[in-house]
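Encode chain A's predicted structure.
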Amino acid sequence: MENVVTADNGRPTALATTLSVLVGWFLLSVWLALNGAFGRPGQPPIGLAVMLAVPLAVFALDTRVRGPLFEGLRRLDLASLIAAQTYRIGGVFFLVAWRAGTLPGGFALPAGIGDLAIGLSAPFVAAAVAARRRGSRALAWTWNILGLADLVTALFEGVTHSRSPLGVFAGSLPSDAVTRYPLSLIPIFFVPLAFMLHIAAMRRLRADQPRG
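Encoded structure for chain A:
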């Protein structure tokens, strides 16, 4: 496959640059999580909010100025952007944590089931898009909107079930486990990544909108 990793002059391609950025971001997330940067029960989840907002802000700015950091994502076709979200089958860990009694059902069930549904359906939606089946564009729009709704719902439920001033639905079992490693990697890395993939996919859908 031409120009996948390096260009002819030896410089990294867009995909290699973006992968490097993602790996660096992931390693930083792991380091912060292992050092307990987000495990402060009873306090507003400011650290998690920063780790969610900063990558999205960088992504938005990089996209606006056509920068190099996330050009690899922008170059992916629609089917690839959708198929990449198969990783969201990892939402099953929320369900496991709920069964183990470490996360409340009010948060873990909608977050886990929603992610699992999006992750399991991603390959099928991507296949329909790649084959240009009838109605595949409408299917892609619907799938992306539902995926974004799932992320927003999970964030809302996570915050409102936490032991913090915003935890209006918190009970005897709060959602604080999601602020500790390894579950904290979900809101600080995998959730922002999912937002980026959805946004990139919807931009691709708009760009490929038939004219006339």
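Residues 162 and 175 are 5 Å apart (CA to CA).
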